[in-house]
Design goal:
The radius of gyration is 24 Å and the shape is globular. The longest helix is centred in the first third of the chain and has 20 residues, at 63-82. By secondary structure, the chain is of the alpha+beta class. The protein has a seven-stranded mixed barrel. Strands 20-19-22-17-14-24 form a six-stranded antiparallel sheet, with no helix packed on it. It has four domains: 3-90, Gyrase A, domain 2 (2-Layer Sandwich); 100-225, Cyclophilin (Beta Barrel), CATH 2.40.100.10; 241-401, no CATH class; 426-543, Cyclophilin, CATH 2.40.100. Mean pLDDT is 89; it is low at 85-100 and 235-251. Strand 9 and strand 10 (182-185) form a beta hairpin.
């Protein structure tokens, strides 16, 4: 069956398409064709086990144009595979090896805690398992789970290794693991359910390098058994950076000191589109409209980095500068004198800005003239909590340096209409998800009829919802539990439904792939609403008009 005949295109929200293909080889072949013919307005191309996602920018590429471009690439991919040509399938991205002789070599000490258990599971000795792992030629099929995490596959004789029945809450950076037919290595510390057979010190993820991910789709990999590593596994992620990072915008003296950081104080801009194919999500400020407004008020470029403040904070100005507070609503004061939100205010050296506990909404945004100066990673100053990219969260006593993002004078009046954060039930418009057919008709109706409450477990990775009446979304008979969905690309706004039947809306810091079916995707224009929802606040999902399935 040809790729074109078997493939099905779905909407993945209003800024992405996702294609179902028969198998991994079809996905890799299609991704290779798409990558070689990428056009203006295509932000990213993300392959996965049996899918490929095309992320596009509507102002530069309409959904219809993106679909037409995709369909033509599918025809070319199917024609090449049907003719027996393997060029598109086997060729890797530029700069990567295309055969085993030139493969990326990864040294591994095979002493993982699951090594003996895995050997017993697949019925071979530990020595044979290691021998076959090192003898195989591996290829990076796709990235996901974490930035720089490559899902490796091989055409050589290999095993199907079940994941751990209980995932670990902490897997050390550099751990080499197995799951299903895949092998991989963890670029950073975090939770995981793969079977760990060894460890490596290979530089899997270096976000400030021109090539941040060592393993990208199409690269060929060989593992080498060694008795010891030259260095301890580490990454240049947020957890290993110094408290004060230098700035690509130019160094400067501290303009502000954090007196009280509150629950979470982050440096955020509008994010880093274009990194999903190597496992890096968009990230960025959750309330994009608030940051854009604040930057306009203080004369910055709209995408300049500012501060995202969860609930409350206090800052001392070490030099005179302009600032604006947008987003959440609460008591604001400068040296004890009340100030208004959504206006530009000039602070003098020694002034103290206090953002009182948010009474409406939950996240303030503080825009500072010149923007916050920190080292950029993948072109962005944003901190991605889920992926560990960017500057660590600010703490009490930390300095803040300003950059050169100011491009115009402070405006007398800003024409942008300001809407305060909602207090009551919120309507959120969504596009039908690519896996809506995984749910029963009654559950689809329930999804739209239920007032879903935000739970306290929500964060920048995802907004977790629950029904106050205890209702759950149930699978259709064709996809009943424990049926699993192979990992596939995700986007901010994707509404996943885990086995509990309670939906989760993925937000800016969510992983770029996931294995729970997506029933719907929040329209991009409504996604900022989740930045300001408070626990217990309710949302109702509505069909977005004018967006076909």
């Amino acid at each position: 069956m040809s790729t074109a005949a078997a493939a099905t295109i779905h909407r993945l929200g209003d800024r992405a398409l996702i294609v179902d293909v028969p198998d991994l080889e079809s996905a890799l072949a299609l991704h290779s064709v798409l990558e070689s013919e990428r056009t203006e307005g295509i932000d990213d191309l993300v392959p996965a086990a049996r899918t490929v996602a095309v992320l596009f920018d509507p102002p530069r590429k309409s959904a219809d144009a993106a679909r037409t471009w995709l369909e033509r690439a599918m025809e070319r991919s199917a024609s090449a595979r049907g003719s027996g040509s393997g060029d598109e399938q086997d060729a890797g991205p530029p700069g990567h090896p295309a055969n085993g002789a030139d493969a990326i070599a990864i040294d591994v000490v095979y002493d993982g805690p699951d090594l003996d258990g895995v050997a017993a599971l697949v019925g071979v000795s530990t020595g044979e398992l290691v021998s076959r792992h090192t003898a195989a030629t591996w290829r990076v099929a796709f990235n996901g789970f974490a930035p720089g995490f490559g899902y490796l596959v091989t055409d050589d004789d290999w095993f199907d290794v079940p994941r751990r029945s209980s995932p670990r809450t902490e897997v050390p950076a550099g751990s080499v693991g197995l799951a299903g037919a895949f092998s991989g290595a963890y670029p950073r510390r975090g939770p995981g359910g793969w079977q760990l057979i060894g460890r490596t010190d290979a530089p899997l993820w270096r976000p400030r390098d021109s090539r941040p991910a060592l393993l990208t789709p199409g690269a060929t990999v060989r593992f080498r058994a060694v008795d010891a590593l030259a260095t301890e596994p580490r990454t240049d992620s947020a957890e290993s950076q110094p408290a004060q990072a230098s700035s690509s915008d130019g160094p400067g003296s501290a303009a502000i000191t954090v007196l009280k950081s509150g629950p979470l104080l982050l440096v955020e801009d509008l994010g880093r589109p274009g990194g999903a194919s190597i496992g890096a999500g968009r990230s960025g400020v959750l309330d994009r409209a608030a940051l854009t407004l604040g930057n306009r008020l203080v004369g910055n470029d709209e995408g300049a980095a500012g501060l995202e403040v969860l609930l409350q904070a206090a800052l001392r100005f070490e030099q005179a500068t302009w600032f604006a507070v947008t987003g959440a609503r609460g008591a604001l004061s400068l040296n004890g004198h009340p100030i208004e939100p959504d206006v530009a205010v000039r602070a003098s050296a020694g002034d103290v800005l206090r953002l009182g506990y948010a009474e409406r909404g939950v996240r303030y945004v503080v825009a500072l003239r010149g923007g916050v100066a920190v080292a950029r990673e993948l072109g962005s100053a944003s901190t991605d909590i889920g992926a560990g990219i960017g500057r660590p969260p600010l703490s009490d006593g930390d300095p803040i340096v300003l950059g050169g993002a100011a491009s115009r004078e402070i405006p007398a009046v800003d024409a942008l209409t300001v809407w305060p954060p909602p207090q009551d039930e919120v309507d959120v418009h969504v596009v039908a998800g690519p896996r809506q057919d995984w749910f029963s008709p009654a559950s689809i109706d329930r999804f739209y009829d239920t007032g879903w409450e935000l739970t306290p477990e929500s964060n920048r990775v995802g907004a977790r919802l629950r029904s106050s009446a205890g209702e759950a979304l149930e699978r259709s008979d064709d996809h009943a539990l424990p049926a699993e969905l192979p990992s596939e690309p995700m986007v901010p706004g994707a509404i996943q439904v885990p086995p509990s039947g309670q939906p989760t809306v993925l937000l800016a810091d969510a992983p770029v792939t996931g294995g729970y079916p997506v029933i719907a995707v929040v329209a991009d224009a409504d996604l900022d609403l989740f930045a300001q929802l408070r626990p217990g606040q309710r949302v109702r999902f509505r069909h977005a008009r004018g967006i076909p399935a």
